[in-house]
Fold:
Amino acid sequence: MDNQNEHPLITVVMSSSNPLGKKYPKDEKYSPGVLYSGVFQVYTIPTMIGLYQLIKQLTKYQVLILGIPKNGLISGNIVSSKNNIIANAITRTKEHIGWDPLGLFFLLVDIDFGDIPNFILNTAKEVLDFLISLDPELARCGILILPSSSQKFNTQKKSWHVYIKCSNVNDMTVKVYSETLQSICWNKGLGIIKFSKVGSMLVRQVFDMAVFSPERIVVESCFSDDENVVFHEIEPLIQEGIARELYE
Structure:
């Protein structure tokens, strides 16, 4: 794949059997983003509005992966690591999916305020202003801010997905950048320690640290089996700009 660092890459995965999108009202028997087998397609995304248009067209059988296949293919079969029965298929693991050192990528900041009392961002503009307060360089960068599917189902649920165009993306620079954002949140009093049922400490802030990984599935589509359910249209914030260069 010859991207030559011109535009970011992103991978769309389509399940060949079960839906992957989030289902509302929530069904305890259904888990979103559970991939058994399907196909992948790598896309080059020249603009942030192009990323928005791609996401808007995703069906309930499709999800995003921020990284790309390490084998250089732009399309093919993909399976879960426990279901590797298709010839020449890649698995959704770090063994097969990673960051291309020659390309640009989108990092996802998954903002959810459930763990931080009395802190909420009601609009996409408030989200952008908050992120710029953490990292002033983001004022010049390509950014897409979308309401989460849960907010489209229930507008009182103020959670957001933020895609940031970044360069010099690799495991080390992503780790440093995400941990830096985490530290700044804690310095602003926006962090908390929770305890799991088994007594282990859980470090929490206003965004999810688990999504900073190339093989992680990002679920954007949502659906319902109830014809009376209405999903609300909430305007995205689209900011065209340069890539945020990451450093070790």
